[in-house]
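Contributing: when you submit paired examples, paste them exactly as shown. First protein:
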Amino acid sequence: MKEQTTNIVPRPDLAALDPGSRVEVEVEGRVWLLDRAADMEALWDAMDDADLDDDERLPYWAEVWPASVLLGRHILRNQDMLKGKPCLDLGCGLGLTGMIASSIGAQVVAFDYELPAVRFAHHNAQLNDVPQPLWMLMDWRQPALQRGAFDFIWGGDVLYEKRFFEPLIQLFRHALAPGGKIWIGEPVRTVSRPVWDELRDEGFAPEKLTVEKVALSGLNMTVNLWEITIP
């Protein structure tokens, strides 16, 4: 990884965190505790005009998304494959998939665009007593990553806007190691449908591995899990 210390978040002052709520998420028999400042709705209400610039810094990081739960299942089901391997977690949010992968021995780099997400992810890894991934504050449009560094890359519900397709495709091409795999959890969003053809046009091979129900917040949601490779 490039030496860009401004992008690497040092150990935060955990005493300065003020968790407003805790979410309990069950993945393959283990319950994970996820602290956050507040739920997304409350954080949204607290936003001002400065947050609604071209980047639209919306507090999606404060939610636990069903796509991440399915990714967590897949990581655990493939733990022998991931153990000791360099892995990249896109848009880590509260840290669920990064923590799960780190708990089974993967060498995880996990990043988010929002500093509160990275700080709470670090806090949550400590809360769940798992080895800390390398948490980074990073914009996927400007990845501070070594070329071909990761055998596995994953992201939960990261294709919810078309403007993300091109930078993510470029990130995949840059960061994926030869023979590597990309896993995307995708909650059957209409907006995501064109990206699979775009990936094929760019020389990738996307394949839908499974479709499963995820029970979260009292609802059963349908989630696709895709695997993307470069033939």
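Second protein:
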Amino acid sequence: MTSRPGVSPARADFDRHLRQLQDELLALGSMVEKAVTKAIHALKARDIELSRQVIKEDDLIDTKRFQLEEQCVELIATQQPLARDLRVIISVLHISVELERMGDYAEGIGKISLMMGEEPPLKPLIDIPRMTEKSLSMLRRSLDALVNRDAAAAMAVCKDDDEVDALYNQVYRELIFFMLQDPKTVQRATYLLWVAHDLERLADRATNVAERVIFLVTGKMVEINVSKY
């Protein structure tokens, strides 16, 4: 394979490794999105076997993250990247950790579903699927911003975290009301609170990914100060 005009073979090889690193990160993101989607579907359908599958497949997400870390360390050790190239590798390192944590939330929801057993949720699941949809949208858009090196798109993802916070607080208030009205509902309400909290944290992690994209593009590490309800 010949290199592009004006680009040394060593540089072309390094660029190929960076593209591969990004592709592997996107694959990890896809694994996480599928895990969360399956976990929520299993919760709604009371599909115990699917919940077990989500829990088991978290090991694959963990393995993928560790493989990415090894690739990043190897590139740093063998290529000694500077400036922008180093920011790419460091960003991949941090984002892979965020994605692995999101996978943990999917696993956690699967475990909650097992704890619920055959018992249906306390109430019809309306806001929790909305939280899922919004959180996963934030994840997809943050990774799209990474691919496109789009700091403005990443900033928009950060600002959307408020919507997930609002949904979480709505779920929280509603479930607390159930508990106060009938103490017998405490355990079932608590299960759903745990699920909602995992989804709220998922959105926070998507925000962290977006912040890393901003760092990659601009070279500046910023923390977006979104309002909390």
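If you have annotations for the second protein, write them as plain sentences, like these:
The mean pLDDT is 90.
The CA atoms of residues 62 and 172 lie 30 Å apart.
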